[in-house]
Amino acid sequence: MVKDSSWQAKAFQAGNYLFLVLLSLLCVVPLVHVLAMSFSRSTEVEAGLVGLWPVHFTTDAYRFVLGKSEFLESILVTLKRLAIGVPLNLLLVTLLAYPLSKEVKVFPMRTYFAWFVVFTMLFNGGLIPTYMVVKETHLLDSIWSLILPGAIPVFHVMLLLNFFRGVPKELEEAAHMDGAGHGVTLFRIYLPLSVPVFATIGLFAMVGHWNAWFDGMIYMNHPNHYPLQTYLRTIIIEQDLTVLSAEDAISQYQNINPRTTRAAQVFLGALPILLAYPFLQKYFMKGIVLGSVKG
């Protein structure tokens, strides 16, 4: 009976490993295929000859995408957005989550503010009112129009709020007995204990700012103010080769097409996040679990 149970456990474990390997392949193989298309000539891509390896290797798609000054300008806009937006997100989320994590006897208005915050998760003002607010506050065509409307992601507040609730109250009580106020308690006790959840919401904020394209399209009036994803979307649609001479355009069209340039843009857009994620991975799952909503 023991042998049968041990055999069943091993079979179950092997089945789990096989399932996870197949699931991983389902995720990785399409990305490898897209990468191969980005390095392949357009004629082979259109003929369906590209699998998991480039056919007639060429970097023309990447040179076409990277060859415009607007691309470098859009990267600078996105990097500026990250440099301002992510720290601002973390700061404002922290300042909102900390008081909401307190009990009603400590913060009597906590329940009302908590419901106000939850309400914003269920309903929003809509696109036109949001645009009117941005316009009337003179934020159009500025970096702040990309940052301030989403400066406090409520989902991040909920993660951090529930994590703060799990911090032993004896630590806070001991700090108060030593004369520490709420500011010292927050920055000297809560924040050092919150590295996993901060890494998690920091990654979420980074991905959100990096991948955002719609706000750049509606709030920016000049293409040189576009963030990266808005710029990439624009060249996907336009496929502008008019700056080339006739011979160069013909040669370019032989090596690239909308499919190869889209494939190149996918990896150019995802590469920074793919590079950053491994450094935050050890905190990611821990932060999600510790900051999840508790029953």
TrEMBL record:
Gene3D superfamilies named in the record: MetI-like
Signal peptide annotation: none
Record's bilayer topology term: Multi-pass membrane protein
GO annotation terms (biological process): transmembrane transport
All copies of domain ABC transmembrane type-1, residue ranges: 71-279
Domain of life: Bacteria
GO CC aspect terms: plasma membrane
Protein biosynthesis among keywords: no
Ranges annotated as spanning the membrane: 82-100, 112-131, 143-164, 185-207, 263-280
Keywords for this protein: Cell membrane, Membrane, Transmembrane, Transmembrane helix, Transport
Subcellular location: Cell membrane
Major location category of this protein: membrane
Family matches, as Pfam families: BPD_transp_1 (PF00528)
Family: Belongs to the binding-protein-dependent transport system permease family.
Protein name, entry field: Carbohydrate ABC transporter permease
Organism this protein belongs to: Cohnella zeiphila
Lineage: Bacteria, Bacillati, Bacillota, Bacilli, Bacillales
